[in-house]
């Protein structure tokens, strides 16, 4: 692969960005504006009823973020004028045809002008309503592709997916595309149109029965999980993201396309604001935990991001965690990596072990990889798959995170609402599902059964308390089943394609420094202690 000119690629480009108010899209927009001020236009699609509302969302949910401070300082008093010329808010929604852009003249102008489409929009809830997840992650991808095909100057469609479309596969997971109808379970066939019809039919059935809103929501969530597991995926999110990839690959024709599959995306490591994260993104699971804490004083937590653990630990609400302290995050330790310099290839030998990785990668590295892949593959009439994570580059353990968190809070004691200093204790880890289930049975399930018996003997006097605690216990166990595949994930994401791209960027020292996306260079202890944990405390925990 020849040397890549990333900054030059974005000069005079018109780029359509979906999901533009999301965490990753903000980092992308800021980076493009900062490193290539001669970008022509960034069209930002936001869910809004009209242009005025779209503009307001861009102002408050994007430009007012601390992330843009460096760019504001760079332009000074001219910042507002600069972004007004470069950013074009678009009211729309990817779940609708033509992306919900109803102005026909505006659509035609976009089809004439847009050269790059970046799809970052997604619903990432593991147990999202099936109809909602299908609408955003599947139909949304279809509508993006249809729109991109009508852009006469299009050079690239970049679709951000997730590495976890691999489901619960173990061993070395390759950067390969999904075939239409492919599943992760046996010889079954996945008919996407049938799944869309099934979800619609179920929703019509529930509404015909005048089902309460909460009952409909629960039924649609359960349908998504059930269909995902039927075809081999652990949850609705990764199932529908996989379907989105299938539709894109099957229907793209000769359109140049990159599918980027990052692992868990965490705070900015260095550029432009170390430690920056989005508060609501990382607090959602923690808030659910706070709601559950009344379950006999439960003090454990299972989450899909390490940031929720940090917040819970900071609040003193978490004293133990679901996982193995010695397990490696984003790497299977026994992966053997050998480089052949003569042939410029990577040869992998994989030896199965008992480690279960949890994966992460800083948000700015993901954006740098996005920009590099776009520049490298622009105009090439093929589909390219890239994993973005530290699977084979730079192992990190839960022990590192625990040690850094303990050390950070020792040096920065937390203060309770009453003004007293909270004691910092080591976090205990529950290492297996067997141990966890025994713990939950002895600590909560058996007392609940006793409470149920007492309630019967007392003619229902404890009914209200029992029903509430039992409901919360069941919800806790639901979360356990939902996130168990990731607490004990036994796979490793190959990044051969991404490594080749890294080698190409290294041919230009200036660009390699500006667009670094090699996790090998991350000092995990420094990142957690000096960047990530302080960032979570400042921007998410506040």
Automatic annotation (TrEMBL):
Q: Which GO-annotated molecular functions does the record name?
A: alcohol-forming long-chain fatty acyl-CoA reductase activity; alcohol-forming very long-chain fatty acyl-CoA reductase activity
Q: Which residues form the Thioester reductase (TE) domain?
A: 17-289
- Keyword annotations from UniProtKB, A to Z: Lipid biosynthesis, Lipid metabolism, NADP, Oxidoreductase
Q: Which residues form the Fatty acyl-CoA reductase C-terminal domain?
A: 444-542
Q: What Pfam families has UniProt attached to this entry?
A: NAD_binding_4, Sterile
Highest taxon of source: Eukaryota
A GO BP entry: long-chain fatty-acyl-CoA metabolic process
Reaction(s) the record says it catalyses: a long-chain fatty acyl-CoA + 2 NADPH + 2 H(+) = a long-chain primary fatty alcohol + 2 NADP(+) + CoA
Q: Which InterPro entries match?
A: FAR, FAR_C, FAR_NAD-bd, NAD(P)-bd_dom_sf
The EC number on file is 1.2.1.84
Q: Which CDD domains match?
A: FAR-N_SDR_e (cd05236), FAR_C (cd09071)
Family of this protein: Belongs to the fatty acyl-CoA reductase family.
PANTHER family for the chain:
FATTY ACYL-COA REDUCTASE 3 (PTHR11011:SF99), MALE STERILITY PROTEIN 2-RELATED (PTHR11011)
**Role summary:** Catalyzes the reduction of fatty acyl-CoA to fatty alcohols.
What protein name applies here? Fatty acyl-CoA reductase
Lineage, highest ranks first: Eukaryota, Viridiplantae, Streptophyta, Embryophyta, Tracheophyta
């Amino acid at each position: 692969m020849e040397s890549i000119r990333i900054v030059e690629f974005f000069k005079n480009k018109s780029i359509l960005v979906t999901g533009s108010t999301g965490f990753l899209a903000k980092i992308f927009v800021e980076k493009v504006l900062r490193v290539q001020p001669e970008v022509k236009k960034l069209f930002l699609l936001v869910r809004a009823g009209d242009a005025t509302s779209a503009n307001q969302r861009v102002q408050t949910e994007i430009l007012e973020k601390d992330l843009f401070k460096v760019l504001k300082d760079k332009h000074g008093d001219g910042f507002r004028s600069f972004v007004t010329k470069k950013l074009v808010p678009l009211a729309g929604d990817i779940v609708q045809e033509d992306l919900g852009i109803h102005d026909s003249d505006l659509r035609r102008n976009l089809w004439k002008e847009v050269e790059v489409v970046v799809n970052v929009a997604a619903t990432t809830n593991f147990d999202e309503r099936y109809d909602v997840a299908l609408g955003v992650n599947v139909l949304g991808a279809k509508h993006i592709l249809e729109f991109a095909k009508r852009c006469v100057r299009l050079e690239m469609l970049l679709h951000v997916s997730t590495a976890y479309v691999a489901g619960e596969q173990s061993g070395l997971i390759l950067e390969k595309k999904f075939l239409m109808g492919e599943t992760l379970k046996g010889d079954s066939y996945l008919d996407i149109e049938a799944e869309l019809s099934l979800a619609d039919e179920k929703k019509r059935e529930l509404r015909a029965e005048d089902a309460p809103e909460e009952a409909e929501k629960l039924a649609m969530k359960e349908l998504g999980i059930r269909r995902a597991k039927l075809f081999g995926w652990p949850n609705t999110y990764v199932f529908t993201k996989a379907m989105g990839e299938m539709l894109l690959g099957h229907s793209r024709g000769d359109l140049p396309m990159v599918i980027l599959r990052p692992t868990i995306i965490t705070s900015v490591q260095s550029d432009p604001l170390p430690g920056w994260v989005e508060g609501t993104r990382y607090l959602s699971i923690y808030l659910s935990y706070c709601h559950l804490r009344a379950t006999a004083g439960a003090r454990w937590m299972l989450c899909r991001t390490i940031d929720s653990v940090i917040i819970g630990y900071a609040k003193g609400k978490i004293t133990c965690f679901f996982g193995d302290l010695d397990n490696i995050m984003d790497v299977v330790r026994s992966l053997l990596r050998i480089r052949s310099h003569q042939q410029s290839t990577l040869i992998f030998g994989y030896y199965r072990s008992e480690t279960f990785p949890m994966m992460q990668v800083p948000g700015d590295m993901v954006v740098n990889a996005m920009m590099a892949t776009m520049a490298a593959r622009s105009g090439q009439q093929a589909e390219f798959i890239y994993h973005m994570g530290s699977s084979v580059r730079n192992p990190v353990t839960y022990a590192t995170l625990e040690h850094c968190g303990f050390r950070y809070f020792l040096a920065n004691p937390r203060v309770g609402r009453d003004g007293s200093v909270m004691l910092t204790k080591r976090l205990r880890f529950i290492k297996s599902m067997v141990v966890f289930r025994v713990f939950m049975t002895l600590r909560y399930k058996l007392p609940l059964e006793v409470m149920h018996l007492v309630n019967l003997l007392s003619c229902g006097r404890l009914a209200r308390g029992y029903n509430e605690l039992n409901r919360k216990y069941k919800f806790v166990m639901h979360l356990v089943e939902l996130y168990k595949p990731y607490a004990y994930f036994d796979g490793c994401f190959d990044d051969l394609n991404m490594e080749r791209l890294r080698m190409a960027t290294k041919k230009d020292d200036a660009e390699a420094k500006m667009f670094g996306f090699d996790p090998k260079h991350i000092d995990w202890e420094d990142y957690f202690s000096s960047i990530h944990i302080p960032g979570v405390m400042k921007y998410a925990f506040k």
